[in-house]
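can u do me a favor
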């Protein structure tokens, strides 16, 4: 029997609904992005984000069901991102999910946002275990070992900033418009690697640190400004990107060897990064690693990935009741 999950994602500035069949097949997805609104402020304004989720959520629910030509009777369970994320934004999705679960008497399945990013890979092809997941998003940078479905062992993490955060900060310093990450990525491909930046936390652990390289970029830009020089944005973006991609790929390949794992998946908004995708593709081909990276549209926040994760959580019997609350922070589980 087929299982249809209706998934809701509202952890940041995208209101998204999706219907996923058997954890792997997308029936319909709707994503309402607030990016243009927040671009006016140079970043996501939490208060505005939650208000816009309120305005959008019912429209998105209706549109998603209509697009699929389905009703709530066809849905087996409702999966919801309960955290981590912006608390006001999360609350809107959680309230909508609880309301639907209550009215239509459907099981409610809580999904950790990062589990969602990881399971975006199951929309490409069935995940094979054991695997290593490189999680690179606005709030997370982690290497996660999975011996089977829904088993997450964090083997390395950032000691300070997340990689997406570092991208966004560097974007601001070099005067690149929001959204920072994708725009720095574009510039990096135009520029040359001319700036002398450090390779961050270049050691034998699986941990990361990006605050040092972020500060190095800030100092370099300020020093040049004080000397009356203009920085070359493209070259600085290229130098920054080369350094962070080098360290991310170096530690990932090291973790694969150390854990004897042949399957690598990439998850989170920064997996859209062209430099990272290219280098991982090259290295994995060379080392005989089975690499999966989601399509760009499944890299950044969307409900399809929550539906994929939600399916496996549902099959494992994970349930929430109507006391479910949003959590701004929570351990991957
Ligand atoms: O996963 P995501 O959509 O939201 C979180 O869960 O955090 O990730 C958003 C982050 C932002 O920091 C954004 O700048 C970054 O992903 N990002 C990129 C690229 N596309 C998105 N960073 C570098 N290169 C990209 N192409
Ligand atoms: Zn995300």
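np, heres the sequence
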């Amino acid at each position: 029997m087929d299982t249809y999950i209706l998934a809701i994602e509202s952890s940041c500035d995208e209101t998204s609904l999706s219907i996923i069949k058997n954890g792997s097949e997308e029936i319909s997805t709707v994503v309402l992005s607030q990016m243009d609104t927040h671009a006016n402020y140079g970043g996501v304004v939490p208060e505005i984000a939650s208000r816009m989720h309120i305005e959008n959520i019912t429209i998105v629910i209706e549109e998603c069901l209509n697009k699929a030509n389905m009703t709530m009777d066809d849905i087996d369970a409702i999966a919801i991102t309960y955290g981590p994320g912006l608390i006001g934004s999360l609350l809107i999705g959680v309230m909508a999910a609880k309301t639907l679960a209550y009215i239509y008497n459907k099981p409610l399945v809580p999904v950790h946002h990062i589990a969602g990013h990881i399971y975006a890979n199951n929309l490409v092809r069935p995940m094979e275990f054991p695997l290593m997941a490189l999680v690179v998003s606005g709030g997370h940078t982690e290497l996660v070992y999975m011996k089977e479905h829904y088993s997450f062992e964090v083997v390395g993490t950032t000691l300070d900033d997340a990689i997406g955060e570092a991208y966004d900060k560097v974007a601001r310093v070099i005067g690149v418009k929001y959204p920072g990450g994708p725009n720095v990525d574009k510039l990096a491909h135009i520029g040359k690697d001319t700036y002398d930046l450090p390779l961050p936390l270049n050691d034998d652990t699986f941990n990361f640190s990006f605050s040092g390289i972020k500060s190095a970029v800030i100092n370099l830009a300020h020093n040049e400004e004080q000397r009356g020089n203009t920085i070359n944005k493209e070259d600085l973006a290229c130098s920054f990107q080369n350094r962070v991609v080098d360290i991310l790929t170096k530690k990932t390949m090291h973790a694969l060897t150390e854990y004897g794992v042949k399957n690598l998946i990439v998850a989170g908004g920064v997996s859209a990064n062209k430099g990272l995708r290219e280098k991982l593709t090259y290295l994995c081909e060379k080392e005989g690693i089975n690499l999966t990276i989601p399509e760009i549209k499944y890299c950044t926040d969307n409900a399809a990935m929550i539906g994929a994760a939600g399916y496996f959580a549902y099959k494992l019997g994970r349930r929430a009741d109507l006391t479910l609350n949003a959590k701004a922070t929570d351990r991957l589980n």
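The beta strands are 4-9, 14-21, 25-33, 77-83, 108-112, 131-136, 141-146, 153-157, 263-267, 290-292. hope that helps!!
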